[in-house]
Specification:
The chain has 286 residues and is α+β, with helices and mostly antiparallel strands. The chain has two domains: 59 residues; 207 residues, Alpha-Beta Complex (Fumarylacetoacetate hydrolase, domain 2). 15% of the residues lie in helices and 34% in strands. The strands form three sheets. Strands 1, 2, 3, 4, 5, 6, 7, 8, 11, 12, 14 and 17 form a twelve-stranded mixed β-sheet that branches. A five-stranded mixed β-sheet has the order 9-19-18-15-16, with no helix packed on it. A two-stranded antiparallel ribbon has the order 10-13. β1 and β2 form a beta hairpin. Bound molecules: zinc ion. Zinc ion binds next to β6.
């Protein structure tokens, strides 16, 4: 099953939707996070019939616009650890984003005037389907609803200001997620083996398989759940492969007008144009 959150611009709200071929079927929930939070049986509720729209006519919001948590794992692909220049980590390198950092799968992204080093990070993103705390590996596996595509867009000059990365990782409206939550049954389980790539203006910059992850999605969910309750709709960015702009010689960063395509086999792709203009103001909707 493929689920998305669509923007009903004229109605001033979002809605959860099931993607059915070329159509989306609107569900009686404001977004995918609310559907998942409706408890056991959300899969059946997601099969409800409702108003249909053509997929090509709707605008997609972040697949979960306001998760209670957005966790991220750094340094989780061996070749990325090598290009970053460190030792293989003994534990997942965790950091977080606020949900304000999320943006839609086809949205334009502002290159902030305050940063000259905006970089890409294609990532497989876990979508949590049920609350779990201190999970065993089996419980962690059962807590994963499915996966989506994310780009952990990073302002490297800000990320590197201190040993903590937050200020370079949670810039407002900079991290696209979507286009859909694809449930685990369609991806061969909670440790999927999928091609992941990032293409900038037609040039492939990152290319790997999600089985290259050092800490797989199930291990990461179990690990995080030791610390805090994971709730339905929470997102976990699982880390990026090698090929980021910062690690190149010389480094390459995004500039005005460039288009970044972030793709994961069987899930879909994000297409985001980066623009050097100032944000117009406070955000009002996802
Ligand atoms: Zn990342």
């Amino acid at each position: 099953m493929r689920l998305a959150t669509i923007r009903l611009t004229q109605e001033g709200r979002t809605a959860a939707a099931r993607i059915d071929g070329e159509d989306v079927v609107l569900l009686p929930f404001n977004d995918v996070g609310e559907l998942l939070s409706s408890g056991e049986g959300w899969q059946e509720r997601a099969l409800t019939e409702g108003r249909r729209e053509q997929l090509s006519n709707v605008r997609l919001a972040p697949v979960v616009p306001r998760p209670s948590k957005v966790l991220c794992v750094g340094l989780n692909y061996l070749r990325h650890v090598r290009e970053h220049g460190g030792d293989v980590p003994s534990y997942p390198s965790l950091f977080a984003k606020f949900f304000d950092a999320l943006t839609g799968p086809y949205d334009e992204i502002v290159l902030p005037a305050a940063s000259e080093c905006v970089d890409w990070e294609a990532e497989l993103v876990v979508v949590v389907g049920r609350s779990t705390r201190c999970a065993t590996l089996d419980e962690a596996e059962a807590a994963i609803a499915g996966f989506t595509v994310g780009n952990d867009v990073s302002m490297r000059d800000w990320q590197g200001r201190t040993s903590q990365w937050l200020q370079g990782k949670t810039w407002e409206a900079s991290s696209p997620v979507g286009p859909a939550l694809v449930t685990v049954d369609e991806l061969g389980g909670a440790r999927p083996d999928l091609a992941i790539s990032c293409v900038v203006d037609g040039e492939t910059m990152q290319e790997a398989r999600t089985t290259d992850l050092l800490f797989d999605p199930v291990e990461v969910v179990a690990y995080v759940s030791t610390i805090v309750t994971l709730r339905p709709g929470d997102l976990i960015f699982t880390g990026t492969p090698d090929g980021v702009g910062m690690a190149r010689t010389p480094p390459i960063f995004l500039h005005d007008g460039q288009v970044v395509v972030t793709r994961i086999e069987k899930i879909g792709q994000l297409v985001n144009r980066f623009l050097a203009r100032r944000p117009t103001g406070q955000r009002s909707d996802p």
